[in-house]
Design a protein that fits this description.
By secondary structure, this protein is an alpha/beta fold. The chain contains 17 helices and 28 strands. About 2% of the residues have low confidence.
Length: 603
């Protein structure tokens, strides 16, 4: 008979003895190979069990665990995947990763210290990631003379915290990792305790049952081995499916029935939660990787705007309005955090105002996607409710999001079809829409050159409009400052206005520093293919400082002006602009002529 697989996460503050406790668990449970034991023996012949997980030299040198260590082991009753997580606050992202797949958690507390801020942090994260069953291991009881009163006080304090965090099942066990008391075997030093040992709890605690309810399966792969077979492979995230069942394909909404359930050993008459199978359908429908097959009479929701809880996992801050790649299962879209509702102080649970998020911050945010996703709240389904944010420049995972619900406006605000479109409006003006995006340092000459280009196009009978960065800040963007977050939002708004003007058939000239490559890329992608021209007005910092017509560089150097691009705020030079203007070598008039000549074919 197959043994249950338990995914276990262990967490605790620095120096609580976590590595020793877990090493003791593995050692006393007979889960350490003899050759590894030999490598861990001290000169006196004893086994240093703490080194079973602190395997990195850097960790041993620093005396801390700095990464998640995974270990597979088995007992007579169950199989385990144990994730030992770092204790330091700066490694919160590591713990979130491990907790996202955990069934149960062991939270360690030093009996001498009681609950610490990091205890609250870890317990909050455990609850946030959907773990509800917790064993509180009150460690180092030997250093408290096995005091029952000390244990009872810590257990009561933690149960109060657990209730506040929604942790529904907590079992407290007094232990000593150093001596192995109540880890695998009962300890005669604790005659007043009649509960389970740590291992007994791990082997007997109830596990969450397979998710009942309607069928859901995200499509991970379209299987086409030959022209006669088309199947959709994936892992069933919820419910049960049988041949003949009616299913709905989301987000398209088309319905059909299941024809076959194909598995390695042959066709199945039924498949349920957790099984990986290939399904064939009775009808030929357009089904792609990232779509979801679901019970036709009880489908999950589809939306493009959500309230999420977001764990920020990158050194670079989250900037609302910046575009990130968003992955939910196998589905990939582009999205933006449009609003940080509040940041959470995980030690007090107090909501705090925030304009940006830093590494390991946790916040409630609004997320807007460029295309709808099929989802269920994370509290209902980890598979359909957990997403990640990926930086489009570095391809690094920068955030983990837990969907709380779809925003009401996602369902209420629909795209209105218009009878007069951009093609008709452009034809009326006898031109093609175009966005000329001038970027460069302050004082490089962007506005001067853009103004000359605008005059030339207007004189030629073109319908144009110039969006100058300074002018826009007098009205539409007057509420924005010059922090990185405000600069991102400034360019996002200008981009949307430019897109609307292009839809009206205009040639739009945008003159804005737009210092970040990510936002310039976003602006290009928001326009129709071939209708965005990035013009880099390239002038060295020494040249623009020498001009300093507005006296801004002087103020920035004197510390009177902060967040000034080129001085204390970065400018990311375009790697491959459509047009590069050497502003130190060309006059504005010469630059204008070069731009007109370069865009003539587009007009």
């Amino acid at each position: 008979m197959a043994r249950d697989l338990v995914r276990l996460i262990t967490c605790g503050s620095v120096d609580d003895g976590k590595s020793t406790l877990i090493g003791r668990l593995l050692h006393d449970a007979g889960a350490v190979p003899e050759d590894q034991l030999a490598a861990l023996r001290t000169p006196s012949g004893e086994v240093d069990v703490s080194r079973l997980f602190d395997g990195l030299d850097a960790e041993r040198e620093q005396g801390i665990t700095i990464d998640v260590a995974y270990r597979h082991f088995e007992t007579a009753g169950r199989r385990f995947i144990l994730a030992d997580t770092p204790g330091h606050p700066q490694y919160t992202r590591n713990m979130v990763t491990a907790a996202s797949t955990a069934d149960v958690a062991v939270v360690l507390v030093d009996a001498r210290k009681g609950l610490l801020p990091q205890t609250r942090r870890h317990s909050y994260l455990v609850g946030l990631m959907g773990v509800r069953r917790v064993l509180l291991a009150v460690n180092k009881m030997d250093l408290m003379d096995w005091s029952r009163a000390a244990f009872d006080e810590i257990a009561a304090d933690y149960r109060a915290l657990a209730a506040e965090l929604g942790l529904t099942e907590v079992t407290a066990v007094p232990v000593s990792g150093l001596g192995g008391d109540n880890v695998v075997r009962r300890s005669p030093n604790l005659p007043w305790y009649d509960g389970p040992t740590l291992l007994e709890w791990l082997e007997t605690t109830d596990l969450a049952e397979a998710t009942p309810g309607p069928f859901r399966m995200p499509v991970q792969w379209v299987n086409r081995p030959d022209a006669d077979f088309r199947g959709y492979a994936g892992r069933i995230a919820g419910g049960t499916v049988r041949p003949g069942d009616a299913v709905r394909v989301l987000p398209s909404g088309r319905t059909t029935t299941i024809d076959r359930i194909v598995a390695m050993g042959g066709d199945l008459t039924e498949a349920t939660t957790g099984q990986s199978v290939t399904l064939t359908l009775a009808d030929h429908l357009d089904v792609s990787r990232g779509d979801v097959l679901a019970a036709a009479d009880a489908p999950p929701e589809v939306a493009d705007q959500f309230e999420i809880q977001l764990v920020w996992m990158a050194d670079a801050p989250l900037l609302p309005g910046r575009a990130y790649v968003v992955k939910l299962g196998a589905a990939t879209v582009t999205g933006q955090v449009t609003d940080i509702r509040h940041r959470v102080n995980v030690e007090t649970l107090e909501p705090l105002a925030a304009r940006t998020l830093e590494l390991n911050d946790i916040a409630v945010c609004h997320l807007h996607l460029d295309a709808p996703l099929t989802f269920e709240p994370y509290a209902v389904s980890r598979d359909l409710g957990g997403l990640i944010l990926i930086d489009r420049q570095t391809n690094e995972t920068v955030g983990a999001g837990l969907i709380r619900y779809a925003l009401r406006r996602s369902a209420n605000v629909q795209w209105q079809a218009l009878d007069v479109g951009r093609a008709e409006r452009a034809a009326l003006k006898h031109q093609k829409p175009l966005v000329l995006w001038f970027t460069g340092l302050s004082g490089a000459g962007k506005s001067t050159i853009a103004n000359l280009v605008d005059k030339r196009l207007f004189a030629d009978g073109r319908h144009t409009f110039l969006l100058d960065g300074d002018n826009v800040r007098h009205g539409l963007n007057q509420d924005l400052g010059f922090t990185d977050a405000d600069r991102v939002e400034n360019i996002r708004r200008i981009t949307e206005v430019a897109r609307l003007m292009a839809d009206a058939g205009l040639i739009v000239l945008v003159s804005a520093i737009s210092p970040f490559a990510a936002e310039r890329r976003m602006a290009r992608e928001r326009m129709a293919p071939g209708e965005f021209v990035e013009i880099f007005v390239d002038a060295p910092l020494a040249v623009v400082e020498g001009r300093d017509v507005k006296g801004l560089y002087r103020k920035a150097r004197a510390g009177e002006l902060t967040n000034f691009t080129g001085i204390d705020s970065p400018y990311e030079r375009p790697d491959n602009p459509d047009i590069r203007i050497d502003a130190a070598a060309l006059t504005p008039e010469q630059a204008c002529e070069r731009i007109i000549e370069a865009i003539r074919i587009r007009l």
